[in-house]
Design a protein that fits this description.
By secondary structure, the protein is of the alpha+beta class. Among the domains are: 150 residues, FAD/NAD(P)-binding domain; 96 residues, D-Amino Acid Oxidase, Chain A, domain 2, CATH 3.30.9. It is 25% helix and 32% strand. The chain is built from eight helices and 18 strands. Strands 1, 2, 7, 8, 9, 10, 17 and 18 form an eight-stranded mixed sheet that branches. Strands 11, 12, 13, 14, 15 and 16 form a six-stranded antiparallel sheet that branches. The two termini are 28 Å apart. Bound molecules: flavin-adenine dinucleotide. The site of flavin-adenine dinucleotide (FAD) has 37 residues, from α1 and β16.
């Protein structure tokens, strides 16, 4: 087998986390190569809800640290990638018989403002029912109790991942697409990684394979301290613009879903679902039940002339969240990540479990700080 050049670090997975770590290590002067079995950003990093957010609903589960860190990352991303990440208004209408009262939502929003820090000037506020009614003609006004508006980040996940990859490449990082890692050998001196076109060598190997991580660990016989639970989420892309601004709505069972207009494509994105998956990642697909779930909940809020039909669906996408394994209910799990480092002589193996698009900057810095460079 052909022996390639030796690098400081090899990374499996060119999603946002693999590319983010590659960029961070390249900035620190390390030679890095990344392998992806598909295209840059072709995994979960192009199937997200495209929100750069602290995660308002994690406050309900008291994950203050996670929300705070993500909000700091959000601020940094709006400064570092102003053309790709921007703050936009989100509306939160609260209806009678909904699972949360206006005072609960208002309190969470004020806490969210505080956690965003003093530099964050776009504070949440209450919106009058008249103002909401005239701007959102497709939404029901009966039973409406209160409406709030707050700001959060939007991006294009695939463009962001490609940009981070390009920034890493500009610093000398090599990214091999359509290159599946098939075998790994770890000795005290060196790590060897076999791909279809040769063997690559480095002292450090990073496994950033997102929801594929358990399958990769099992296939490559790698040591690990964690595992993941896979929770799928679908997005519907509907013809036309249902609302003028993004909004969050509540299901009867305390879950939330969003409706986000995409004016450039003249479409509306609706998401998302949460379903635990046991099949291999590549075998998971959207089900009719997932699609029905979103359409039924959405239609409960729309005036009769605006209700969505199956024919209005342009596209459906599905992604898999990699939640660090726990025995809790999947909807209660935190999106917190774990960096799992294994050392053997001079060799180091680092697994990246979990994480969000929003937190890739802090995750990448922490990963680089953990390694012996
Ligand atoms: C429905 C949904 C909505 C979400 N919404 C948001 C959101 O709004 N905001 C947010 O911050 N986060 C969101 N997330 C989370 C976020 O999208 C992910 O945490 C993030 O994209 C994970 O990136 P990653 O680099 O770890 O994994 P991935 O992007 O999945 O990258 C892993 C890569 O590894 C590659 N790979 C796998 N096996 C091999 C192999 N053997 N050899 C070579 N390559 C391999 C795959 O091809 C893939 O490209 C969402 C997730 C989902 C599923």
């Amino acid at each position: 087998m052909k022996i390639g050049p030796e690098y400081d670090t090899l990374i499996i997975g060119a999603g946002i986390n693999g590319c983010g770590i590659a960029h961070e290590l390249s900035k620190r002067g390390r030679s890095v190569a990344v392998f992806d079995k598909g295209k840059i950003g072709g995994g979960t990093s192009s199937k997200s809800s495209r929100l750069i957010h602290g995660g308002l609903r994690y406050l309900e589960h008291l994950h203050f640290g996670l929300v705070y860190e993500a909000l700091q990352d959000r601020t940094e991303l709006t400064h570092s990638y102003p053309d790709l990440v921007s703050l936009v208004p989100f509306y939160l209408p609260i209806y009678h018989n909904g699972p949360r009262r206006p005072v609960t939502v208002w309190t969470a929003l004020k806490l969210y403002d505080v956690l965003a820090g003093r530099r964050h000037k776009r504070h949440s506020r209450r919106v009058s029912l008249d103002e909401f009614g005239s701007s959102f003609p497709n939404l029901r006004k009966d039973q409406l109790r209160a409406v709030f508006r707050y700001y959060d980040g939007r991006t294009n996940d695939l463009d962001l991942t490609r940009r981070v990859a390009r920034d890493a490449q500009a610093l000398g990082c090599r990214i091999y697409e359509q290159t599946c890692v098939q075998a790994v050998r770890i000795s005290d001196q060196i790590i060897e990684v076999d791909t279809g076109d040769g063997t690559h060598r480095a002292k450090t190997l990073i496994n950033a394979t997102g929801p594929w991580i358990d399958e990769v660990i099992a296939r490559l016989h790698l040591p690990t301290r964690f595992g993941i639970r896979k929770v799928s989420g679908i997005h519907l892309f509907l013809d036309g613009l249902l609302t003028p601004h993004p909004m969050f709505l509540q299901t009867t069972s305390k879950r939330i879903f969003f409706v986000i207009p995409e004016p450039k494509q003249c479409q509306t994105m609706v998401g998302t679902t949460e379903r635990e998956e046991t099949a291999p990642v590549d075998d998971v697909g959207a089900t009719e039940e997932d699609v029905r779930y979103l359409i039924d909940h959405l239609n409960r809020y729309l005036v009769s002339g605006a209700r969505v039909r199956h024919e209005d669906i342009r596209d459906v996408s599905i992604g898999i969240r990699a939640l660090v394994a726990s025995r809790e209910d999947p909807t209660d799990l935190s999106r917190e990540y774990q960096l799992d480092l294994h050392e053997q002589g001079q060799s180091q193996l680092l697994h990246v479990f979990g994480g969000k698009l929003t937190t890739f900057l802090s995750l990448s810095r922490k990963a680089a700080n953990l390694l012996r460079l």
